[in-house]
Model the fold of this input.
Amino acid sequence: MPKTIPDSKFTELQCLDRMAPTVHAMRFLWREITKSDFGIDGEIEVSVPKPDGKGRHVTGGIIKVQAKSGHSYIVEDQQTSFALKSTKEDFQLWHGANFPILVIAYHPADDKLYWKDVREYVRNTPSVWRAPFKVFFDKSKDVFEKSCADKLMAISDTSPPRVSYEEKEQLYSNLLRITV
Done:
């Protein structure tokens, strides 16, 4: 008997397949994690235009992405909003991470991606640590599309900055040579 591919696998792939063109339309880079995915599905690397207008510079700003897709995650679905079912462990991972994380939901009925900066969501949602664990989305404000680029740029500024290779400094030591 041949192996069965569950329909949910195709919904998951639809979500991930939409990520790349959306992120690339922002002129950022998308990297999907294909090995050992236990909570982070990919990352967005932010870039800015070069001053001469010929290409872009990477900024060192990285945003991690947790993608959720399918009807099994969508709850309380209304015309203007919905909630994404989650777990306490997801919220603990997102809250404790030392990098920004977006949760991006693929809503199959709407055929759209929606997003939240989950660290901001945890900070601003008093009931977030009480079951049932959910992330609420506004269907008009939380669409993940090209116009989100500036917001993602601001979120990536919370990442630790890269080491500057242009700055020079002179180091002095207060250690004395000891000879015996």
